[in-house]
Design brief:
Elements lengths: L5 H18 L6 H8 L3 H7 L10 H16 L5 H19 L2 H13 L12 H15 L9 H21 L6 H14 L7
Helix pairs in contact: 1-2, 4-5, 5-7, 5-9, 6-8, 7-8, 8-9
Length: 196
């Protein structure tokens, strides 16, 4: 039995989403993904039943983006600003590299899937990073302690999903990042400690 190799799986996911964006989901074949990722068909089918199974992996792509941001995140002083930065970077990435049709497919698939909903998986780097940032903000007295860190993270994630759904419903008629940032800042300010 073949041992799981996260690097191979991530290569397949990254290549697939790049191709989905460049040539469209319907025009991308498994063969295209295998070629672009530099892997094999056997590797592809070891991790995925088919192309449709990749729709649930966008959360993995998001987490890869968060992993890239960790070094830069540590240079930002305030936890409030770190949370705004994470949101802005994610939404910027979505605008630059995820088509609205593809994001719509992912979001709608999460509504009907039986079993794991990847966007809600609390084991993701996304949730761990948010939880760590919020807790640090509470320990430093920057964010309120009247609300648990878990509740703040839950509200943060809910707010992000709401923006993504609306952006898809509106067919991208506005810049997701530019529109969301001031509203997101106002939303997060409700969790600032009183002295801020």
């Amino acid at each position: 039995m073949r041992r799981p190799d996260p690097k191979t799986k991530n290569k397949i996911i990254t290549a697939a989403w790049r191709l989905f964006y460049e040539q469209g989901y319907d025009n991308t074949t498994v063969e295209d993904i295998v070629y672009e990722s530099g892997t094999s068909k056997g590797s592809f089918y070891h991790y995925f039943d088919g192309k449709d199974a990749l729709l649930g992996t966008l959360a993995t792509l998001f987490d890869e983006k968060y992993k890239e941001l960790i070094p830069e995140l540590s240079t930002i002083d305030g936890c409030f600003d770190r949370l705004v930065f994470l949101n802005s970077e994610l939404f910027g990435m979505i605008e630059r590299s995820i088509s609205i049709d593809l994001l719509s497919k992912l979001l709608s698939s999460q509504l009907v899937v039986k079993g794991e909903r990847h966007l809600l998986d609390r084991g993701r780097l996304y949730f761990k990073l948010l939880e760590r940032t919020v807790r640090e903000g509470q320990e430093r007295g920057e964010l309120t302690s009247r609300v648990s860190s878990g509740e703040i993270v839950k509200a943060y994630a809910l707010c992000e999903r709401a923006f993504m759904y609306d952006w898809c419903l509106s067919s991208g008629e506005y810049s997701l990042c530019a529109y969301a940032t001031p509203i997101f800042r106002a939303f997060l300010s409700t969790y600032l400690a009183e002295k801020y």
